[in-house]
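Intended use. Records like the one below are meant for learning the mapping from a protein sequence to its folded structure. Do not use them to infer anything beyond what is encoded.
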Amino acid sequence: MPSATQDARKQAARNAALAAWHGMDAEMVKAYHQNRSSGTKLSMYAADKALAKIESELFQYRQAGVHFEGEPKSTAKVTAVDVESTPHKATVTECLDTSGWKAVQGRKNVTSANQVQRYTVTGSVRTIGRQWRVVDYDVDKESTC
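Structure written out for the chain above:
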């Protein structure tokens, strides 16, 4: 049976991992609005593959003259946590609703009409030093939520 201390550590880890996920989401929205991560705190919440994926998408959109308006809605939860290993790790599963999130080129909405608007994103969050950061994520547009 898990001890109260172990349960408290797991709950603290869940809270910290979810805070990193929400922080990444919020800073990502800012970055996609302005088409670049400079001036955001994205690197405080995302690292490794997650940060590289975001930066790559931002570059592609910037080259195409596309930015985003509005905001996606997210329902995220920690589905696994490991505080016994170092670094500590967690898995976050998110339902992302992009119906209020539009790709804009110039003044024209260029969001694809047949684009899936509600889908699942699964992410890996871990500690880097004492800070929790999202290190990778996979978008599954086949798995609507």
